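Students often ask why we bother encoding 3D structure as a string. The short answer is that it lets us treat folding as translation between two languages. Here is a chain of 350 residues written in the first language.
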Amino acid sequence: MSSHTSWVVLSDGARPTEDIYFLASAAPGLRLQGVAVERFTASRSFGACWLHGRSFLSRYAGANLLLCRSLPLGWLRWLERHRNAFGFIVYLIDDDISAASNDPTLPEAYRKRMGRIANLQPRLMSLVDEVVASSEQLARVFFSEHDNVQVLTPPLIAPLPSLQHFNLLPSASARWKIGFYGTRAHLADLMHIAPAIQGMQSQRVDTQVEVMLGSYTPESLISLPRLNAPCPLAWEAFKVYQRAHHCHIGLAPLLDTPFNRGKSFIKFFDITAMGGVGIYSNRYPYTEIVHHGKNGLLVNDAPGEWRSALEHLLENPVAAANMAKQAAVDAKRIGNVEATVQFWLKRSSG
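And here it is in the second language, the structure alphabet:
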């Protein structure tokens, strides 16, 4: 394989990142341009690393490599020895890993895992030609660590549904569906606005809340009436779920922490992909794309403001539907996959 006609994702298992920013977005368009794209799983077994490394080198010498978030230590050492055998190498990152490792609000096991990755990041960045970050603020984290840092905001890879579910509102037979689809990394953000959800669910009978945290759902919420708490889903299962279900309102709280400051606006796409209008924290990155009252609502941190925003949408179903429609229009424009194809095509010659 020649460096100007091939990309290989050397994967440590960060499948959502790989799919969103490359494999499910850019790769189909790259292949149409004659660029070969493959994915190779980097085994964590030390012995398998060296065995697979020989096969990898014989198959992909000269190829461009994409490293997403992390790489097993054995493969990192192997790549350090064989760096000159490959073409252009990119390190793609969509979180402030170092900040995550030091954030006391995050689960301990997650912090430890992020700490191990953070310790290896300097070695990874010393191997690559370019660092690609998912937001401007995240890119700034790496300006002092690498002399070539670029930004690739997330593209929209999910299909957008019809908004027919809004047509049933208001109706005695239909309930508003309000969803929170963040991971445990956003548990503190959810807990901060929990009083708004509690107050709403305790006083209304026309709302159903879904929190996709399973057993990790806060106790203050799990006992509420009409609250569903499905277990978190693996990436492939979540994509299937997203296509088969809808919501009317999506919640995307984001407290002001070092970890959250590096976040992208991917939740705007997640909510829009489920046919919803979002309520977002009134800070970066949402202030970059959400126009208050047009394609979503921006609110400050006080739980009372989140309650007011919820009530505003619930009392104005036509306005909520119009915001959801505009969000879909904006998601297609902002998340245009062709821009992602062109981003990677420019790098395909190294």
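Translate back mentally: The chain has a mean pLDDT of 94. Keep this in mind for the problem set.
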